């Protein structure tokens, strides 16, 4: 049985997909949020699948260095790190670090958070 939070996220996702299309940024943000929920619930395969969907959509819609893209890249890195997949985590963190350095600069707190994750 789905818990109430998961059910609400899925309903929101279905609504955004119908109203705005699957690749709209609000839909993708809901996909990313559902991935966070799945990760918190220990549903790691589902979390990864949703993060990858959000990442692909953000890259296509906004580019590889947009804040929303990089947030999802970082989230995917955290998921991999928590699974002990160091190589995959490092790849995601390096992507996020490079993008955040270019967009926000080295001293921004979001950039520093990535350095901390590494």
TrEMBL record:
Pfam families: TPR_12. It comes from the Eukaryota. InterPro entries: NLR-like, TPR-like_helical_dom_sf. PANTHER family: AAA+ ATPASE DOMAIN-CONTAINING PROTEIN-RELATED, ATP/GTP-BINDING PROTEIN-RELATED. This is Uncharacterized protein. It comes from Bimuria novae-zelandiae CBS 107.79.
């Amino acid at each position: 049985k789905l818990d109430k939070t998961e059910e609400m996220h899925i309903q929101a996702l279905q609504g955004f997909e119908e109203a705005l299309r699957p690749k709209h940024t609000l839909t993708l943000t809901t996909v990313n949020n559902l991935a966070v929920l799945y990760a918190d619930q220990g549903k790691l395969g589902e979390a990864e699948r949703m993060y990858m969907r959000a990442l692909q959509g953000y890259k296509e819609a906004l580019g590889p260095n947009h804040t929303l893209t990089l947030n999802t890249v970082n989230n995917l890195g955290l998921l991999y790190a928590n699974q002990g997949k160091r190589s995959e985590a490092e790849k995601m963190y390096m992507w996020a670090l490079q993008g955040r350095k270019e967009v926000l600069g080295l001293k921004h707190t979001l950039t520093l958070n990535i350095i901390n994750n590494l």
